[in-house]
Amino acid sequence: MIGLRELFEALAGEKPPEGIIPPIRFSKAVIDSRLAEEGSLFIALKGENTDGHLFIQEAFDRGAIAALVEKAPDLPCQTFDLRVKPVRWPEERIKLPVCLLVPETLKALQEAAAFWRRQHMVKVIGVTGSVGKTTTKELIASVLSRGFRTLKSYGNYNNEIGLPLTLLHLGPEHERVVLEMGMYALGEIALLAEIALPAIGVVTCVEPVHLERLGTIERIAQAKAELVEALPPDGVAVLNYDDERVRAMKDKTKARVFYYGLDPQADLWADDIQSEGLAGVRFRFHYGREVIHARIPLLGRHSVHTALAAAAVGLVEGLSWGEIMAGLKDTSAQVRLMAVKGIRDSTILDDTYNASPPSTLAALSVLGELPGRRIAVLGDMLELGSYEEEGHRKVGRKAVEVASILITVGPRARIIAQEALSCGMPPDKVHSFESREEAAAFLLEILEPGDVVLVKGSRAMRMEEIVKAIMARD
């Protein structure tokens, strides 16, 4: 973890004089004052809904010893101005807590992270793609942890704030860092790569997700390719061979290319895929002349691509198949599509993390592989732009194939219901609601023993509230 002295050096552009900065390591770095604890660093960011500067005192009350700020707070603490260069260092030792006054706190966070990353001889693995980034990141970290001391980005900390926060937690013990890299616009992944300096870049797929922001799928591919463009000549681009747009990224990188996929033309490929329902999936790896039989606890046939990506990174990093398989079997890597117990002996497939047409189609395929009455509860899929209607209609057609009952939540998801009805799903099996509360109340009335309920929707739909309403209580 970065220390106070190193933070001053990163933002001042020079080493502080000896003796004036306490040699203290931060316990953590946070942007939410409620997460502050003894010894933490608080970064006061201005957001759409609130301003972190309003919560500096709360962070200090919880034990934070320093804060990055854009304006000097009216608080009983020392404020050190780093906006003027060269820095005017005080003659006396700085007292804690202290505020570090900078022109922009977000930029300061990024500068500190870039500085701190460059103090460590560590290999960084960047992961991007339209779908599956977080699970792929988790599984890669699980595999690498079998051979290396590994730091990974927390949850979906994949943007210009979350990635720097992760890097500030680097320590001398770390040998590998696995970072998820998301984007909403061109140039954002390039910025993250400039901060993190990845040596390995993994691209899972290019799909019409965030089309509302980027306009065309070609621009999405261009944005994702910024990761492989940033790799050094001695790096490795790990690319999904089965995705034509990802496969073409080989022409955009100086790094060596390692392909994975279901096509035998890939360096690492898989076949004989068999879903085992809630027990996971079974398949065979092929690598050169090696054939490895695998069984992993991830749900759905689509999870094989996630396993292939993680195994590919493990192979690139020289791990044995024993180490790779141990990492792939770690159930904690399953952060999406988790099976939980519902009321009246039902089973809930909780995939409320986020939603896009490709990920929803994959989740519906898992639902279709399970016995019992299958209920699909699907919310709006957002930020699809011109693909919005087509994407929702594709999901509606798939729902007809696998679901016994279809429940939609939100105005866009009504398109799913309309398409299902037009494809012949009985009207008494299709139910559309405007709110989560209405959908949850309906489920509480109809659920029976043996039912399997898939719940999925975009993050903003907060479909997890439906899961909470129908979960079994101990």
Biggest pleated sheet: 9 strands, mixed
Please tell me the overall pLDDT: 94
Main structural class: alpha/beta
Query: What spatial form do the alpha-carbon principal axes imply?
Result: globular
Tell me the domain tally. Answer: 3
State the CATH class of the largest domain.
Alpha Beta
Distance between the termini: 39 Å
Taking pLDDT < 50 over at least 5 consecutive residues as the criterion, the unreliable ranges are: none
- Count the helices. How many? 17
Tell me the CATH architecture of the largest domain: 3-Layer(aba) Sandwich
- What is the spatial order of strands in the main beta sheet? 7-8-6-9-10-11-12-13-14
Percent in strands: 15-25%
Residues in helices, as a percent range: 25-40%
User: What's the alpha carbon Rg, rounded to whole Å?
Assistant: 24 Å
Question: In words, what does this structure look like?
Answer:
- There is one protein chain.
- It is built from 17 helices and 20 strands.
- With 474 residues, the chain is an alpha/beta fold.
- The protein has 3 domains: 105 residues, Udp-n-acetylmuramoylalanyl-d-glutamate--2,6- Diaminopimelate Ligase, Chain: A, domain 1, CATH 3.40.1390.10; 214 residues, UDP-N-acetylmuramoyl-L-alanine:D-glutamate ligase (3-Layer(aba) Sandwich); 133 residues, Mur ligase, C-terminal domain (Protein-Tyrosine Phosphatase, Chain A), CATH 3.90.190.
- A 9-stranded mixed sheet has the order 7-8-6-9-10-11-12-13-14, with helices on both faces.
- It is globular and about 80 Å long.
- 50% of the residues are buried.
- The mean pLDDT is 94.
